[in-house]
């Protein structure tokens, strides 16, 4: 667990101590009237007080010892960790480099000395031109839409021709889209298909095509996924389902490619400003398309104000996302050059805690945590609001009738 979670280990100890302390406090303050008088007469209160008095110092001592052990292990692990492999001469193929993680990674790997093959959707676009301007002649730009098999195969041929006798060290699966926002029932089927086509089938296509090169070089596969593929984020059903399929595929590959000497890693970022996340006109366009495409009965049940609030919450969440992409780029470099790369890298604050709560805490607590950090909705669907209002009116009428009687 120490290697898995990115947050300091003592945070998890504090969470554990909080739950233990809360449980003991509830036991101590339990209403004595519910305890048989004989037990109370035997001094149960005194025993509970003593138990609490002994438990608190013991818990604190345990936390201190575990924290000291963690610090010592971290120091020894850091001092004994082998240095990263050299980047010079290693070739890396990266998808989705028009902007975001892909572009930042391509620039950084080029600066480290990698031979970078960067795919873009538009060779004359701003991202492609910026890569040409800022990177060395080692970087090769390729126009590739990973949902088009012909373009994927052409990219494979171009890469093999450029490499010659040299091998391909790694494939970085970065390309992905999030084309929906809203409840699962409100998300259009085109949203589900669009996310699956790029995030799953496109990545599947590019990975299968380049696997022979990677097996031959005993190289690396690094895939940018999302916590939404493992946890039920509200209003991200289409995106999360595609990432869940991707995660299962990559995890299966990890086992199957181990005998070939190919390391497979997954990067799980927190919230960052990438792609269309800060494009207000994009969100408005998606919003209008959704309103026009929903059946009238469904729109009446949820209400246009409910759909609009969701759009505004997404915009607000995206505006507060981290613009510094370096934690993700750093995790990718570690996965590419570490002699023993990890299977999962949590890139960004809060991701480790999120997975800790998901793995070890009750569903209700994890669900409340996701709602607090992501979608803080205030409106209920219109039909539920009207129904709750009817229930309230009915209860008031019943109370008035009781008083009249």
From TrEMBL:
SUPFAM superfamilies to which the protein is assigned, alphabetical: NAD(P)-binding Rossmann-fold domains
TM annotation in the entry: 6-23, 58-76
Superkingdom, taxonomy of origin: Eukaryota
GO function term, MF aspect, one: 11-beta-hydroxysteroid dehydrogenase (NAD+) activity
Keyword Transmembrane helix part of the UniProt annotation: yes
Pathway as given in its UniProt record: Steroid metabolism
GO BP, sorted A to Z: glucocorticoid metabolic process
Keyword terms, alphabetized: Lipid metabolism, Membrane, Oxidoreductase, Steroid metabolism, Transmembrane, Transmembrane helix
Known catalytic reactions: an 11beta-hydroxysteroid + NAD(+) = an 11-oxosteroid + NADH + H(+); 11beta-hydroxyandrost-4-ene-3,17-dione + NAD(+) = androst-4-ene-3,11,17-trione + NADH + H(+); corticosterone + NAD(+) = 11-dehydrocorticosterone + NADH + H(+); 11beta,17beta-dihydroxyandrost-4-ene-3-one + NAD(+) = 17beta-hydroxyandrost-4-ene-3,11-dione + NADH + H(+)
InterPro entries registered for this protein in UniProt: NAD(P)-bd_dom_sf (IPR036291), Sc_DH/Rdtase_CS (IPR020904), SDR_fam (IPR002347)
Family: Belongs to the short-chain dehydrogenases/reductases (SDR) family.
Protein name: 11-beta-hydroxysteroid dehydrogenase type 2
Taxonomic path: Eukaryota, Metazoa, Chordata, Craniata, Vertebrata
């Amino acid at each position: 667990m120490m290697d898995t979670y990115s947050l300091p280990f003592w945070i998890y100890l504090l969470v554990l101590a909080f739950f233990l302390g809360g449980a003991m406090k509830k036991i101590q303050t339990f209403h004595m009237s519910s305890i048989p008088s004989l037990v109370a007469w035997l001094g149960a209160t005194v025993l509970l007080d003593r138990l609490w008095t002994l438990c608190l110092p013991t818990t604190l001592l345990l936390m201190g010892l575990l924290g000291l052990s963690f610090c010592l292990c971290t120091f020894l692990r850091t001092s004994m960790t082998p240095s990263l492999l050299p980047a010079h001469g290693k070739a890396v193929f990266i998808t989705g480099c028009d902007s975001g993680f892909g572009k930042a990674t391509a620039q950084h790997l080029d600066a480290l000395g990698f031979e970078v093959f960067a795919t873009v959707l538009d060779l004359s676009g701003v991202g492609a031109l910026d890569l040409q301007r800022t990177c060395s002649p080692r970087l090769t730009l390729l126009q590739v839409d990973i949902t088009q098999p012909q373009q994927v195969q052409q990219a494979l041929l171009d890469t093999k021709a450029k490499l010659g006798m040299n091998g391909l060290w790694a494939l970085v699966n970065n390309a992905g889209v999030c084309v929906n926002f809203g409840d699962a029932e409100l998300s259009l089927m085109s949203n589900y298909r669009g996310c699956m086509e790029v995030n799953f089938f496109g990545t599947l296509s590019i990975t299968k095509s380049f696997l022979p090169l990677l097996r031959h070089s005993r190289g690396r596969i690094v895939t940018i996924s999302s916590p939404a593929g493992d946890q039920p984020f509200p209003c991200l059903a289409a995106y999360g389902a595609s990432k869940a399929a991707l995660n299962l595929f990559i995890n299966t590959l990890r086992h199957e490619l181990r005998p070939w000497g190919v390391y497979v890693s997954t990067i799980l970022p927190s919230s960052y400003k990438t792609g269309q996340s800060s494009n207000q006109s994009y969100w408005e366009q998606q919003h209008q398309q959704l309103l026009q495409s929903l059946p009238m009965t469904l729109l009446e049940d949820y209400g246009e104000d409910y759909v609009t609030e969701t759009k505004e919450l997404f915009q607000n969440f995206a505006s507060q996302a981290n613009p510094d992409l370096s934690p993700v780029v750093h995790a990718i470099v570690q996965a590419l050059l570490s002699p023993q790369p990890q299977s999962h890298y949590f890139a960004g604050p809060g991701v480790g805690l999120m997975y800790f709560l998901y793995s070890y805490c009750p569903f209700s607590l994890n669900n409340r945590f996701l709602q607090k950090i992501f979608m803080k909705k205030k409106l209920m669907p219109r039909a539920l609001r009207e129904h709750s209002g009817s229930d309230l009116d009915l209860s008031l009428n019943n109370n008035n009738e009781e008083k009249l009687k």
